[in-house]
Specification:
about 90 residues, mainly alpha, 6 helices
């Protein structure tokens, strides 16, 4: 069964929470996204920001594995959530 948009947003928020709890990954996310810690709080409900969280995690297989293990979800959940977010089904690898 496909993940709903609401479930994808909840998953994305949980993934963001996981990133925030990782002392070694949070600074990388902040640098890659250009966001500050206050931006995280302010933008956590914005679908495009949550999509960037999923895109960031998908840059490293170990992050996918660690995040999904911590959230106790299958590894493919991250990709499913990404596809359900607004703009998530549109992939541009250039």
């Amino acid at each position: 069964m496909a993940m709903s948009r609401e479930a994808a947003e909840v998953f994305s928020l949980n993934a963001l929470g996981w990133i925030v709890g990782q002392e070694d990954i949070l600074p990388v996310f902040l640098g890659a996204s250009g966001a500050s810690e206050s931006d995280i709080r302010a933008r956590a409900s914005e679908p495009e920001f949550l999509l960037s969280v999923l895109d960031f995690l998908m840059m490293d297989d170990q992050w996918v594995i660690s995040c999904c293990d911590a959230l106790n979800v299958p590894y493919e959940s991250l990709g499913e959530a990404r596809q359900m977010m607004p703009g998530g089904a549109e992939v541009s690898w250039t």
